[in-house]
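DOMAIN: structural biology
WANTED: fold as tokens
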Amino acid sequence: MTNTAPTANLGYHLSQLAEVLVSIHRSNQRLILIVGGDWQQRTELLKSTAAAHDLTYLSLGLPLSRVLLDLLPHERPLAVEEQVVAMAGIGSRGLALDHVEILFDPDLKTDPLRLFEVLARDRVVLAAWPGEYDGQRLTYAEPAHPEHYSRAASDIQFYSLEVMA
């Protein structure tokens, strides 16, 4: 399911996303990817939604990179999921994940979407998607780029900051 709307009106997006959050509590799917817009718009929407709905806002990039730098390179892939789960907090009502680009680092051998799904097993997870969504597939980076990621997305709920043509 994809909701679409113009990018300019934060109040509009907050009210629309609030409706999605109400409906998501009645479903088994607790993951919503925020797509479209630019990173600032996604961040603003995630921070505002987290504050309004008592969700934990987590900007993942810098804190995760600091933790992983303390580990040997071969230990990092094994520690990613454990560290992200620890940062998300146990028993939090929900999570707003932002700045997730570190998860696409090929040295970490992590499937970002699978990690989001793990986090969403016991809480609502809103996650900013830094790549593209074409209505069928999620992608991140160009195919020749080492961080390239592509996955069919028929089973995922989206909220779009773009107007779909």
Remarks:
- The chain has five helices and nine strands.
